[in-house]
Design goal:
Structural class: mainly alpha
Largest sheet: none
Number of helices: 4
Number of strands: 0
Distance between the termini: 86 Å
Radius of gyration: 30 Å
Length: about 150
């Protein structure tokens, strides 16, 4: 993009409406009383996310440190020969290990959270179903009592 084009775009944007803000959103449906939003999640979706995070955790845990010993040996050898690259290789290895550990922790957290969410929602479903069935039983008893 050329400088003059950039300046023109800035001028156009500021001349349109500098005191207003526009938010991108889904247009509201007329008629009211409808369902808000469209976010839906199923147990299958939660399980897929948790499984993918667990697989990534397993694969990274197994393969993420394959180059560690050879990198350390190379760094030590380079330092012994008084190459500054040996110290730099140590720094790269330390940063890799820190990043790998962070990613492994994140994958474990996601996997565990999906398992927890799946169990929590199953418990909620059971609680709601048992509460509703109890109310239906009470209503039925009241209905029977009024027929006499």
């Amino acid at each position: 993009m050329a400088w003059d084009e950039w300046e023109r775009l800035k001028t156009d944007a500021s001349s349109r409406s500098s005191s207003h803000m526009q938010l991108n959103q889904v247009p509201s449906e007329s008629g009211g009383g409808g369902q808000q939003g469209d976010l839906k999640v199923s147990q299958r979706d939660l399980a897929a996310v948790g499984d993918a995070a667990f697989k990534l955790f397993t694969d990274l845990g197994r393969d993420g440190r394959d180059a560690w010993s050879s990198s350390q040996a190379a760094a030590k050898d380079l330092k012994t020969q008084e190459f500054e690259l040996g110290g730099a290789l140590d720094v790269v290895q330390e940063r890799w290990e820190k990043s790998l550990t962070t990613l492994l922790d994140a994958c474990a957290h996601i996997s565990n959270h999906m398992d927890f969410t799946k169990k929590a929602h199953a418990g909620d479903e059971y609680h709601i179903a048992s509460t509703v069935s109890s109310i239906a039983t009470l209503d039925k008893g009241f209905d029977e009592g009024t027929k006499r």
